Amino acid sequence: MNVQNCFHCGNDIVKQEEIIFDEKSFCCVGCKTVYEIFSQNDLTCYYDFENAPGATPQDIKGKYDFLENEDIVTKLLDFQEDSTHIVSLYIPHIHCSSCIWILENLQKLQSGVSTSQVNFHEKKVRITYDPKKTNLKEMVLLLSAIGYEPYISLENYENKKQEVDRTLFYKIGVAFFSFGNIMLLSFPEYFEVGEFWIEQYKVFFRWLIFALSLPPFFYSASGYYVSAWKSIKSGLLNIDIPIALGIVVMFVRSTIDIVFDYGQGFFDSMCGLIFFMLLGKLFQQKTYNFLSFERDYKSYFPIAITKILANGTEEPVQVYDIEKGDRLLIRNQELIPVDGILISPEASIDYSFVTGEAVPIIKKSGDKVYAGGKQIGKVIEMEVLHSVSQSYLTQLWSNDVFQKKVDQKYKTITDTISRYFTPALLLLAFVSFGFWVFRDVSTAFNVFTAILIVACPCALALTAPFTLGNVLRIMGNRKLYLKNATVIEQLAKVDTIVFDKTGTITTNKKTSITYEGEPLNESELKLLKNALRGSNHPLSRRLYDFIPHQEKIETTAFEEIIGKGIFATFGEQKVKLGSSQFLQHMSENTHKKTKVHVEINGIYKGSYVFNNQYREGLEQLFENLEKQYNLVVLSGDNDGERKILEKMLPDSTTLVFNQKPEQKLQYIEQLQKQGRNVMMVGDGLNDAGALAQSNVGISISENVNVFSPACDGILDAVQFSKINYFMRLSKNAMKTIMMSFGLSLLYNLIGLSYAVTGNLLPIVAAIIMPLSTITIVSFVTLMSNFYARK
Amino acid sequence: MSVIYLLICISIVLAATFLYIFIRAVRSGQFDDDYTPSVRMLFEDELKKKGNNPKTKIKTENQD
Asked: What region holds the HMA domain (chain A) (predicted)?
């Protein structure tokens, strides 16, 4: 075991703080306590599945007092009866098999728990317990104590039970059942026509096939009829029309065939078609259960907050019950749920949710505090001005423009193609019918139906689901989680990318300054600090604050050349600070980093490097993106960093500062009016409107399990520099789709050549249909994997 | 040869039984979570012979 890392949580151990317990080292008391709990209960297996799987328990004193309130608890429970309560809790820390193991052995830690079951993908644990022996608060406290603190927000409070939609599984099951049986039963007639035994039994076989094809025709394929009907009504010709038409024609013609003993019909192909297409649907239906893309303020807000009653006692109160004039107690890291006036002498409030500004704002007693801020530091008291629904932030959220527009119908590539495909197909069918009808009426009907059957765009309809479904998975593996497959298509169409500044192209970590070069001794540092004192340049100020306190000495001469550097003299000693040109010191790639070079008494010493807080690979990313996209940086901050950004980013980048959330939204709208397809990359609530307005809204998140605003995709912050890759992959995905469209049209042509001449045999249809499906599916899978590797 | 009626009936009934079992499995939620059960089934042994040789590593970092 690595000595450097905590046995429980795997974090680095600071030597002085190391705690040795049971021959294992821990980084803090919290981790040690969790280990103690586990070892006392014979649960040390926890550490066998995974190295250092734990999390340090956080201080939660008083945070869950609201769970004593019966009404709130009732709302949170899934199921409630005298001796059984069932609750599902969302636990963001669930990440490995050890987590599953410990959470499913909760009954060893807490009496009264009968079972607990983890759903890994949803990061949820479902606990069944006896309310007489334990209660929800104890449970939550226990979970928090072992490092699995559940996340309970206002959203849980309103939770309606979500119905799981499993109809697709049923439909596939039914379709597969019929498909398999029909295939077996049709087999004899493929090869031996007119053979004695077949003649004897074919009536039985055919009617059995007919009976078996009823469930897929009426049940499994029902979605296509509905969708086709809707699309006809709305005047759009989507891909489901030819599909539905093909299925219906196949069924009717096959029924006529067997009624009048013309042949065996196409029931086999019909069931196969339905089965394969439903399979494609399932494949595309990849969802990330543990993420939610449709969030609003409710998932950020706490369920309850501490209220101070007139007699000074504290009581948890549901946030919706907060009224004007109430006095509230806000603890460290707690979110302020309503607008109010500060009563405590001082508060420092982090509004990064709302404004994107990372630095906490100091408020004095009597100042107005707005909902959405997070108190950092000690406990504060406030008086309520507005209830939750009337607070600024919630009103902002309820504003229509902040909702992602649902009616914004996006036309998928398949629909675009089918707009041409469907009329062309119908035209061909009618022309052929017209051609044959003068020669032979029955052949004319044969040809007409055969065309609709064989041209049924099964392969065409499967192309997009399989390609996009596969690309969606590939992106998911690389930590870009998209809401659904259509986002990829929209991604490929983007021509303008708008970035938020704070939290998006910058990290939340504070700027750090490092020194490179020959180490400076005490007296040199003293000179340096005193030289800096006279300068008002931002870099000088920051460097001045960075250098530890030194004795004060007066300069004998001081000169500041604006934009270049400082030259200061202290008696005999000379200090020269500034850019590399100023010092005439040639240093490699000077423009990449902000540096202040130091020269003392004519000798070059080294340089202070200002590690900007911008994300790694930002410059490279912008340089790559610039070639194909219009880039915009939209910031809620003032333009203090304009200089640095201009230097760092390509010249064509537009920089806009001082943007309020509404203005960001309007800016995006403006771009869209100019005909641009805009992708917004942002974080935090302040970008929520812009993310919703943009064609593709991607939210950057340091930890995908914590909450991000409503968006089309969530990108893990470590992958920020790969945005270029994702953009390229989406374009290549569309290229793959186009290629495979060509391929499937080729199959259609071959099929049609049989159909138009009136020679379509059931066996030909039964071969072409699965063959085209299999080639298309393997083609797109191979191609998208190939592009993903690039 | 009329035994074919019987045979086909049996085969269809068998297939229908499988369909029924599948639908019941879906309904009971077996297809909702396709990951956790695969990990869970490896735990059972671990508990009983705890202490003997518990150093079985299961690599499950990724969720797809």
From this structure: 85-151
pTM of the model: 0.71
For residue range A380-427, what is the model confidence (pLDDT) as tens digits? 888 888 877 777 666 666 665 555 554 444 567 777 777 788 888 888
Residue B29 has pLDDT above 90, yes or no: no
The single-letter code of the amino acid at A241 is I
CATH of domain A512-611: 3.40.1110.10
Q: What is each CA distance from A587 to A577, A644, A697, in whole angstroms?
A: 14, 19, 41
Which CATH class name applies to A65-152?
alpha beta
Burial of A89 (0-12, 13-18, 19+ CB in 10 A): buried
At a CB cut-off of 8 Å and minimum separation 6, what does A442 contact? Answer: none
Classify domain A479-506+617-727 at the CATH topology level. Answer: Rossmann fold (3.40.50)
Distance from CA of A526 to the nearest CA of B (A): 51
What is the residue-averaged pLDDT of chain A? 79
The contacts of residue A720 (CB under 8 Å, 6+ apart) are A505, A615, A616, A617, A618, A621, A700
A170 touches chain B (CB under 8 A): yes
User: Which residues have a Cβ under 8 Å from the Cβ of A450 and sit 6 or more positions away?
Assistant: A754, A755, A758, A760
Pairwise CA distance, residues A381 & A307, whole Å: 9
User: Which residues of chain A make contact with B1, given a CB cutoff of 8 A?
Assistant: 197, 200
Chain A nearest-CA residue for B50:
A45
What is the predicted ipTM? 0.74
DSSP state, residue A556: S
Nearest to B46 among A45, A120, A122 (CB): A45
Residues A267, A268, A271, A272, CA torsion sign: negative
CATH code for residues A301-334+338-390 = 2.70.150.10
pLDDT at B58: 41
